[in-house]
Design goal:
Shape of chain A: globular
Helix content of chain B: over 70%
Largest sheet of chain B: none
Strand order of the largest sheet of chain A: 6-7-8-3-9-10
Shape of chain B: globular
Mean pLDDT of chain B: 92
Oligomer: heterodimer
Radius of gyration of chain A: 19 Å
Low-confidence stretches of chain B: none
Structural class of chain B: mainly alpha
Low-confidence stretches of chain A: none
Number of helices of chain A: 9
Distance between the termini of chain A: 35 Å
Amino acid sequence: MSSTQQDIKIEMHDVKKAFGNKIVLDGVNLSVKKGESLVIIGGSGTGKSVTLKCVLGLMKADSGSIKIDGIETNKFDSAQRDEMMAKFGMLFQGGALFDSMKVWENVAFGLIQGQKMPRDEAREIAKEKLRQVGLAPQTGDLFPAELSGGMQKRVALARAIATNPEIIFFDEPTTGLDPIMADVINDLIKECVTDLGATALTITHDMSSARKIADQVAMIYEGKMIWDGPVGRLYDSGNSYVEQFIHGRADGPITKHANFRA
Amino acid sequence: MSDVQNSKNIMPIEFAQKTCQLIGHSILSFFQSIGALAMFIGKATAQCFMPTFYPKLILKQFIDIGYYSLPVVGMTALFTGMVLALQSYTGFTRFNAEGAIAGVVALSVTRELAPVLAGLMVAGRVGASIAAEIGTMRVTEQIDALVTLSVNPYKYLIAPRVIAGTLMLPILVLVGDIIGIYGGYIVSIYNLGFSSGTYINQTWDILERIDVLSGLIKAAMFGFIVSMMGCYHGFNSGRGAQGVGTATTYAVVSASILILISNYIMTQIFFS
């Protein structure tokens, strides 16, 4: 992952985070180039979500440096943080749609509240974004609770890309979807990221999703990045931890280390 | 077996150390939560006064917290006033002091019963619903989503509720005062056979501005407490359905206790 300084969009250096006595991130190093899609794979409870939340600023890292566009974010005040947020879009695992609002209001929320755009204008953009994720404009007048899980994911994706963000985060985008809908969402993610020319950071443990949307893959284990490389090299990584994870084997160094009884 | 041996081997000094550790830990976590609450109240109150307001959201909360609480508060006040007249009659006839009933009803309702009972009822109705709503938003990551969409959750979610709670409760209590005194009036006139004119005159004579005003100031404080507790516990809700349930319980219990404590303190300040 060596590259010139200007190309690097997200850079984490020796980031640590603990909750009480439990160390979750133990010196995470990571860098994502502009326009690149990095997928972080790893088991449950290895620190994937916390990594993402630290970059987003939803959680504060205990130590280390997190740079976005070369700017250190760890010491931001709330105004600087808000400014930075305008660059971000995020697809939450459960969608996190606002259930008190209609679908189009959800999609247009960042435009109306964040950018103070007039409602009519924002509504048009919301319709366009819904079309982009394969939903009919009439869907916009429904409430999130009236939609299926797959449709909710699409709406959440439309909301994440509505403000044309420079960096999009995907938190387990295919979890809870059937294999076909998962593949549709993967395609949509790939399309949206390419269309916007955005940088993408995804966390997942779904290997088919990782293969499809990643340019680069990194594996996190016990709060550290233990492997990273281009997606093409994922299946000859030569790392026994990665091998076990991507093939989903019950026997291997990960389970041996955690004292699982497989 | 080994456990028994171990417990025998614990030296008195070790036991003392453990006890101290436990005490120290609980004291520290107590102050930690007080600090967290103070920070939260500070942040939320600041957001109530700093620009970008959401008038639509505030209006919605006015209706949710104020208008929809009217029946509950009205019923509470009505029956409190009625029972107060009835009870003081049975007591006061022993001293031939029936003439004091109007005064007792008016003073007790405006100073204490309307604000405190309205506060407690609203804590149950509004505090719980705020905690459950915001708690569910926390659990389903909707609050995180707000942040990623460049909207400050303190400003968007909490400030409207706190503003509405603090402004609406005095209005509710004013309505409650009137209904409560009217409840006493009904019982006195139709049940106990008082004359309407005397009762109204006695009520007017004894009521001073401070009686009503102190009740309304109390009410504003209770409204602040209820909405703030609902928001705080919802905002810091634990995971899952259980987390939201616990948050709701804490919101109602802590609001109720704080209402009773602050009521005593404010009474001490107003009337001593």
